[in-house]
Input
Amino acid sequence: MREKIVAGNWKMNTTPAQGVELLKGVAAGMNEVCDCVTMVVAPPFTHLSMVAEAAKGTNIHVSAQNCAAEAKGAYTGEVSAHMIASLGVEYVILGHSERREYYGETSETLNKKMVQAYENNLIPIYCIGEKLEERKSGTHFDVVRQQVEEVVFNLSADQFAKLVIAYEPVWAIGTGKTATADQAQEIHAYIRGVLAEKFGEAANDIAILYGGSANPGNAAELFSKPDVDGGLIGDASLKPDDFIAVAQGFGKC
Ligand code: PGA
Output
């Protein structure tokens, strides 16, 4: 069985103290979420230590939203994968479209970040997805193929086995426009097929999350699709009740 994952990407929201309250709110609702779902929260760097501490003893896992491409040294303002892992953080989101678009992250940078993540035993949540023009011109399959080939194809089989992928169409992020469950299923199945070209059967064990205006109203339909293994949730992860309600999209097993 593939892992089911619901991850909250808090982006640049909340103070550290508010982040701890948010974590506690999610923890309080965990008994309403099926045990089969792995719950992850990704606060800003400044909150990681406090949130990781508060998450101890809960079933909530903690992720960073990014890490440096280099191991250590004279890189002012950067935060290394080693620093993140030393806090007990288990995941790192890499290649989010906001980082690709606003901070110029390329496949070259992301390959280096992947190396750092794996060297420090962080599980990468690698984000891919097309822009609106690319969807309209029908090149979305080529776009995600390229994002997979240029980065994921460089992983060893052992590394690949620990990877999580998040498909997030840029036109659906924070816009209130969600891909339909059928659109998500279509492209998730395609992505899995591309992964299988390189990694064979192992592609069936990789969780592919959907992200982009997923919310309590559409989660159940999205998660009902065979290749949609969970969600990377932005806005709806900032309210404990909404985040829990999204995770309940998997029902009880
Ligand atoms: P959204 O963000 O749920 O607010 O659209 C998702 C994401 O960017 O990870």
User: Anything to note?
Assistant: The pocket of 2-phosphoglycolic acid is lined by residues 9, 168, 173-174, 211-214, 232-236 (CB under 6 Å). The longest strand covers residues 4-9. The CA atoms of residues 10 and 43 lie 5 Å apart.
